[in-house]
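Action item from last meeting closed. Structure (211 res):
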């Protein structure tokens, strides 16, 4: 993994000190099925079950660099899967921050919670996992400094725009087969700025729950 991280830094995908530190401290092998642990150090998505994947490290690095999470922030992580990005974010925000992770597949919610707590993020109260429809967010926990969404939709759900604080950032893949990563910045109550980065592929954002 160290070699891969060095490559991501060299190629300009990883730039920010605290994000690089998180990649070095949180081992991807702790978040993939045992049969795939040797592949955890490859720059590729891996299947985690239930039709879901853990994104390739390059994509995660790109999204986190766009999002720019910071110590002490409150962040919503939608489509938390095996818990890898939740753990990276938890490391970055630290004990003064909070990560709320939502997963629509109940078994993956349990898996993500278990994996993230290999680093005591749940025990310390930094990360909290929810089973539910991520497109609705968590209105009772709003507003969020940042929102990270690891599943593609045709558009950014209005509920998530509303739950983002003014000055906050949201990153989400948008599109059908060919997707753009979209960085949304909230400039005012109903004022947003978008930037698009093409060439990505994610599983779809599905609202149906899966027990």
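Sequence:
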């Amino acid at each position: 993994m160290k070699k891969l991280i060095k490559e991501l830094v060299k190629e300009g995908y990883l730039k920010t000190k605290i994000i690089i530190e998180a990649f070095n401290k949180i081992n991807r092998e702790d978040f993939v099925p045992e049969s795939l642990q040797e592949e955890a150090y490859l720059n590729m998505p891996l299947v985690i079950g239930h039709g879901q994947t853990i994104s390739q490290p390059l994509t995660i690095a790109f999204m986190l660099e766009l999002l720019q999470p910071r110590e002490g922030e409150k962040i919503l992580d939608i489509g938390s899967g095996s818990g890898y990005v939740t753990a990276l974010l938890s490391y970055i925000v630290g004990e003064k921050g909070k990560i709320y992770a939502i997963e629509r597949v109940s078994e993956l919610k349990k898996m993500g919670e278990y994996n993230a707590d290999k680093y005591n993020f749940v025990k310390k109260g930094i990360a909290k996992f929810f089973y539910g429809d991520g497109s609705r967010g968590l209105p009772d926990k709003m507003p969020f400094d940042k929102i990270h969404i690891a599943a593609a939709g045709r558009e950014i759900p209005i509920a998530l725009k509303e739950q983002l604080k003014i000055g906050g950032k949201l990153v989400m893949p948008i599109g059908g087969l060919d997707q753009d990563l979209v960085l949304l910045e909230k400039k005012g109550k109903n004022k947003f700025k978008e930037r698009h980065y093409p060439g990505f592929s994610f599983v779809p954002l599905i609202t149906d729950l899966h027990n």
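Note appended to the action item: The chain has a mean pLDDT of 90.
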